[in-house]
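Hey team,

Filing this mostly as a record. A colleague (T.K.) asked me to run one chain through the structure pipeline before their review meeting, and I want the input and output archived in the tracker in case anyone asks later how it was produced. No errors, nothing strange. Just documentation.

Input sequence:
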Amino acid sequence: MLDNIQSNEILDRLPAHLQQYIKPQNYDDYSPINQAVWRYVMRKNVDYLSKVAHDSYLEGLKKTGISIDSIPNMYGMNRILEEIGWAAVAVDGFIPPAAFMEFQAYNVLVIASDIRQLEHIEYTPAPDIIHEGAGHAPIIANPEYAEYLRRFGEIGCKAISSSHDYEVYEAIRELSILKEAEDTPKEKIEAVEKRVDDLQNADVKPSEMAQIRNLHWWTVEYGLIGTPEEPKIYGAGLLSSIGESKSCMTDAVKKFPYTIEAAKKEFDITKPQPQLFVTPDFAHLSLVLEEFANKMALRRGGLEGIQKLIDSKNLGTVEFSTGIQVSGNFSNVIEHEGKPIYIQTKGKTALSYREKELVGHGISTHPEGFGSPIGTLKGINLAIEDMSPRDLRAYAIYEGEKVSLEFEGGVKVEGEIITGTRNLQGKIIIISFRNCTVTHNDEILFQPEWGRYDMAVGKEIISAFAGPADHESFDLITHTPSTTTIKSKKTPEREELESLYKSVRNIRNGENTKFSLNAAFDIVKKHHPKDWLLSVEIYELATENDQKLAEEVKNRLLEIKKDRPEVVHLIDDGIEMTESKMVTP
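Output structure:
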């Protein structure tokens, strides 16, 4: 897929399991109406946001090469983003949160390449290129914020999800697609809305991913910076919404100081937000992120971390104190006095060290699962990992010896030692046995006829996180979304309207066109009476050299306002932008 986009060294580092989400931008698919929607939103945003957005926004627009007049092309964006150490890829709508965050960890901006319909020009629940390109991209030109985004991705992609999280993701993805699509039956939207509400209101303990996703929403997407009394906008959701960027600055939207408590605050992606959080500066965002990370299984490990992986029913990894990492679907943990003393996986499992699969310990070696004790030997103060070669010999932990190792908590490993595997520091991390039996009290955990027994060595579990330690260990090219974005229908009426938009765009660009502004206005007035944006575009051009036409168009816009009260403010804003430009010296 990378062959279809302007690459750079950042994109070249992307692993295959992330590349599966990338799709071509297909720039020629953007219609003239799409281009007009982009231009209107950007003109309005730059005009308004110059007053209320963080200084990094306008500076970032220049640095990232994002134009007001045209939808950004991924080729051009990647060429410019490379200069600030980032890249961009196109995707189809929402992708799973863990993948989204992992892209960030690689300094890659994920851009939903579709663009909102004219009918949803102020706000769309579906991610689109206005939100991603005009919202996220400019702010990452700020180095401090860009590092926060990268670090968030690095930590966030390790957060442990639940099966409930995936149901919520699928439901929200479907709802955003249906709401953005044309002519979706009301009852169909209401049915999915109910499913989303039921899922979001379910009495389920929020997972790590659910909580860190909340932090992402209230900062990266809907963040304010400064003070609750005098905030500025930096969140992409606000920067890309000409409606919500205004309403959020009113007293109707409550503002709270940003703290780790924001992780507990849920959000509804399909509606304007009733409250927002304000960070004093970008450095504070990183402080809260680290505070949250300190509570994650990624840094705490232990029994709680293993249990989170079991409950997630997803691929995950635990790391022993020696550094050996076990990746698989965790199915069971035996505990003693509040500590894990034995772990088990079910199905394909791989062993790694420092995120690199150990030779001879991939899923072909452990296709049915893996189990290992954790902790110290009973009656011996010295842990196996801390034993010197002399200590190991003294306790008969030596090649060719038949041993019976009883661990604190009652796990017993009996068999003949084949060999041991050491890490770079010389510590034993795996001991392999033949003719081995592993028991816990009366329960048999492993028996000789199952083959060689590989025992991971470690006195404790220091980390537990989502996903494999080494992504090359597993086939992760499995993404098949249950829903895809729905394209606009091409009717003869729509095609005629688009040709008019194209003609007016060509006139603005100084290109030859067989249409004049007067002809375009006559046709849109007669055959497309509900359309307002093209008249705004014609009015802007007419004010430059045809005052009579400008007056006619303005009168027509005033008539549309009477028939379509829902677009009154949009028309007013369009007229205001043009007329303010006329009086600007």
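Quick notes for T.K.: Residues 198 and 259 are 28 Å apart (CA to CA). The two ends are 48 Å apart (CA to CA).
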